[in-house]
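Check my protein:
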Amino acid sequence: MDRLEEELLAGFDEDGETFEFAGPWLKRPADLDKLVKSQNTRVREVVASIGRDKDLDVLVNDPKRDVRLQVAEWGREKDVDVLVNDSDSCIREEIARQGRPRHLDLLIDDPDYSVRSMVAFLGRDKDLDRLVADPDWRVRESVAIRGREQDLRRLENDENQAVREEVARQRQMQEDLPK
């Protein structure tokens, strides 16, 4: 690791969310131009978290998931349009979390349960209508968490105990609400 990479990493909080940190680096474009090409994954991840457009344009196609995830979290349209088809379910789940209808329309059929669960958590009626019958119990549990009565009725006798318990929890919460 060279001096510039060490300087970048030394000043950056591990969570990658320190906006006070990014400001001074944005005033050093020549250094960022070098760092975006680093062989060190963590350096590229930190560069992505700074969010400079020209760096995100490069890093959206990075081979490392953590770098692409940082790009996805910025939510730029052109990046999420690429990353909605990413090979890593963690990236696709982040795209679902952002809730763009055209991406949810694609991700409702995702092969990974965690992505479909995120679609259910967002609670669009047309998605819940389909996902209530999902083959994966974790997706059906996410549907139950939304608390729609028609889904709770359908899931109250689900084959999975966790789903039935969530239905009971939702019903109890509804009973506890002030009338």
About this structure: Residues 161-176 form the longest helix (16 residues). Residues 14 and 46 are 9 Å apart (CA to CA). The chain has a mean pLDDT of 93. The chain has 14 helices and no strands.
